[in-house]
């Protein structure tokens, strides 16, 4: 019989938890009218057993289904499992503070993959990774808003942006116009040229606009938190991945009038020196590089991708093709560099980059966008209707209040009963918001005011509650997974109290169990032996010289071990002690009357030195305590199950049992 499904169920029972959604779909049954069984009058649905066994069944399509024997064994294990959960509930373990805290922690992990937010995040992750397969070179012009800009100020900036857009589209140079108009301070140096970049290196609206342009195209004004941007894309090409280089830096002394010439001459001399075959790169770096962070490490820099370094340095690094190739000197604002290519690697797989991408998305404006989309979907799905008239009034009256003064302001202005919204037919009023604010210990900041900040947070919380309740009520997979974890925690608590800790800590009971079952803890015939497996046949004579004709003793073993470990630790493999010889690979073939012998076993020569023979006898408690504890715990478990079957009568529904078996073999 195979252990395919039984092992899966035992793993579940022993809490081998997986923090992920099961890959195997739940087998659907025709209905839930007939429970599979009752345990002490409490029903257990057949879908629970089907879920657990379907989850564990990873066999290939076309392989035979579960046999009757397998099914009966799994049903028996499942019954024992549910009996223990029933007892844990009867003991109130599901109401303990420890259980509630642990289960809530599990619930947070379990629900995440099922939430609307997760699917939206997954979409953004995939989109970002898809964009990462390409790099874009673009220039831009930024027009910032004045401090405390009014609507009219914003319109003036927009009109200016539209004017510049027109000039560029009429063959104006975006780089020349950037020097004239851009509020980006770097434009005076780079003329608006951003070099190459990829996904997640620019703010989202800028990235979206750039990836929607082809080479040569110019965007309409793009609004970001910085202002309006005009973007022109010059090039798009496949992402070369990451590069690692080492470099030599020669700085330009700005204090000297001829500092540029001196640096140029020095870097040229270094470059010429590098061309000599006898030159060692690391020595040149150590002696001449003026980058203190890398000069003592051979000039080595960390791996970097497109958009991580200044454009000139980056372009030179990615233009190198062969490992060890050295670039001609290049100039950046830091001075002159010579680069050597150390390695290149392509864009990593989505699986490798997933968590890094997720972290970056959750740190930028995409997180706010995702939250807005989540709320929009939740509002539509759960019949959220806002009382717009009351919301406008409450904003006007309460945005200037403090958090601590919010409740009293509600009462003074007689606004506590004003409706905020309805959600799934339930009405929420201002007092509900005030009660929520009083419970929260955090402070919120919002440009528009106190009411706006807390109202949005309160609405989001209630919408999230509605989504989670919907999950628990209508998502079968989530409901089953949640129940599995809940029951698993209860099972663990009961087993820990009644079996594992009791079996581990009660030494008196262990000894009593050992004495009652001493026939199970017996040594078979043993012999004091030293076995030397010869791995290097050239060292055979050396071993013979030490062992042959000698009497087995601790001193002899110690002498031999120290000698070969010092001279040739790979020559032999040894085993020593009082060893049961009956089924031993080597000793079972030995003549126990001979003190020294050589035996060929499994292709290796073994030198065997034998001492005293020890007849079969009981093991001392200390010699077998680990095995006793294991057996005693199994005994406690069996007794627990036996007592629970008496305490909670089990009644199996034959019809539901047969339906379960059929469902598992569809």
UniProtKB/TrEMBL annotation:
Domain PpiC: 133-235, 240-343
InterPro entries reported for this sequence: PPIase_dom_sf (IPR046357), PPIase_PpiC (IPR000297), PrsA_foldase (IPR050245)
Signal peptide location: 1-25
GO molecular function: peptidyl-prolyl cis-trans isomerase activity
SUPFAM superfamilies: FKBP-like
Keywords, ordered alphabetically: Isomerase, Rotamase, Signal
Protein name: Peptidylprolyl isomerase
